[in-house]
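To illustrate the input format used throughout this study, we show a single complete record. The first block contains the structure-token representation of the backbone; no residue identities are included at this stage. The design step must infer an amino acid for every position from geometry alone.
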């Protein structure tokens, strides 16, 4: 089959008629759409017992700075003190923790290799840990809200005390666990990964105030045409860079024995095993944001409260450059660790052996595992470096303008990464629908011949 025939086949698969005729695709898109609509509407339901006027006045006076990317990941729900204020943050934190623990504890590592039953057990542990994190975070939010006071001295909580704390914990816990269940429904019956889709929706929801903020700053003269041009150019450059680097693979030459070797014999080049450079996805960026924003603010608050203002520590913790360095370091560290989980050398070597393949200069077994143990960390360093640079570049170029304009490299990573994932899933659904249609046509032809 020549290239023109292949291109015509692909165009037939992904034509407008094939997309419109993919019933399973539209069913999954409909499920995803209604779940996301319900989620967005629920983010406007406030927690009980709060004076929202005082709370908004307090947040506006602080400029939402201490909320950081948590406000973006929640789609503004955290700043509105919504029942969905925690959004997917506890679930993502629990998922990351369980994934890291599978490296440390042999029992969890064994579960990960036990197939669907083992993964189901790990998912159950993730839910339990999510519940524990939600209880801790909801209590922290409830106590923190009791200390919020407006400019006129009024408290943001009408009746502080244990009744308010319990109501807040119940509201946040129930809503967050329900949102976790909704994300699982998207993963099962919808399109794409549920938690990623929900975070993607939250970030997109923040684009509207971002555009409004840019237009307002431009009309008031606070931002020049040149700065707007730099902003647009930066966004386009980052998007193109992310799209390109998300499709970069390290090709490992592989030989196949017996019948499989005949497929690559003669003048054909040897087959290759593709290893994705950024195997960890956007999780390192999310981890870096979570561990560098709120914890720094909390540490600074605790030190100031119990030990007084220490100039060196205060300057260090409030320094933007220190925060960027810390975030980049955390991203790099997590990218290397998590890549070895996603691309486990033993699993990669086992899959290669099961397919009848082997490396040119390394015999199957321990030598192949040793080769991948050296190669995968090297690849993941480049992947982590790419994520770190994209995450901190807007902050370096725009400075404080970046936070004022809601522009974050992490947000762009998630938007582009999830978009590529959803497009790939949609293509799979169209292909499956086409295959089902071809099978049905062949069965119908056989029945006609039998008659």
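Output of the design step:
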């Amino acid at each position: 089959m020549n290239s023109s025939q292949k291109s015509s086949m692909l165009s037939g698969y992904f034509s407008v008629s094939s997309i419109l005729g993919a019933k399973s695709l539209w069913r999954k898109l409909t499920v995803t759409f209604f779940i996301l609509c319900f989620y967005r509407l629920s983010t406007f339901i406030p927690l009980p017992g709060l004076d929202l006027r005082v709370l908004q006045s307090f947040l506006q006076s602080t400029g939402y700075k201490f909320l950081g990317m948590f406000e973006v990941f929640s789609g503004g729900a955290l700043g509105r003190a919504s029942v969905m204020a925690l959004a997917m943050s506890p679930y993502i934190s629990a998922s990351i923790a369980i994934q890291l623990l599978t490296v440390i504890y042999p029992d969890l590592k064994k579960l990960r290799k036990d197939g669907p039953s083992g993964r189901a057990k790990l998912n159950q542990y993730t839910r339990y840990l999510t519940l524990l994190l939600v209880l801790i975070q909801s209590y922290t939010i409830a106590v923190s809200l009791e200390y919020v006071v407006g400019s006129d001295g009024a408290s943001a909580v009408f009746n502080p005390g244990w009744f308010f704390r319990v109501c807040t914990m119940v509201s946040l816990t129930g809503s967050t666990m329900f949102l976790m269940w909704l994300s699982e429904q998207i993963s099962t019956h919808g399109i794409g990964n549920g938690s990623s889709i929900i975070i993607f929706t939250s970030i997109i929801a923040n684009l509207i105030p971002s555009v409004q903020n840019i237009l307002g700053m431009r009309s008031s003269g606070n931002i020049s045409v040149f700065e707007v041009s730099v902003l647009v150019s930066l966004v386009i450059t980052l998007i193109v860079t992310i799209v390109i680097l998300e499709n970069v693979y390290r090709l490992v030459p592989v030989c196949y024995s017996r019948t499989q070797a005949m497929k690559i014999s003669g003048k054909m080049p040897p087959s290759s095993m593709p290893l994705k450079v950024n195997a960890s996805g956007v999780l390192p960026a999310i981890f870096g944001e979570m561990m560098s924003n709120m914890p720094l603010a909390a540490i600074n608050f605790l030190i100031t409260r119990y030990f007084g203002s220490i100039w060196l520590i205060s300057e260090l913790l409030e320094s933007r450059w220190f925060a960027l360095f810390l975030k980049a370091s955390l991203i790099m560290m997590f990218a290397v660790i998590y890549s070895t989980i996603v691309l486990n050398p033993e699993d990669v070597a086992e899959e290669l052996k099961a397919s009848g393949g082997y490396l040119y200069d390394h015999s199957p077994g321990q030598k192949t595992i040793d080769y991948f143990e050296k190669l995968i960390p090297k690849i993941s360093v480049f992947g982590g470096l790419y994520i770190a640079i994209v995450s901190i570049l807007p902050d370096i170029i725009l400075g404080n303008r970046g936070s004022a304009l809601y522009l974050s490299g992490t947000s762009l990573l998630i938007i582009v990464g999830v978009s590529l994932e959803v497009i790939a899933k949609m293509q799979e659904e169209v292909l499956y629908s086409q295959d089902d249609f071809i099978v049905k046509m062949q069965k119908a032809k056989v029945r006609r011949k039998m008659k």
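Structural context for interpreting the output: Confidence is low (pLDDT under 50) at residues 1-12, 264-269. The longest strand covers residues 249-256.
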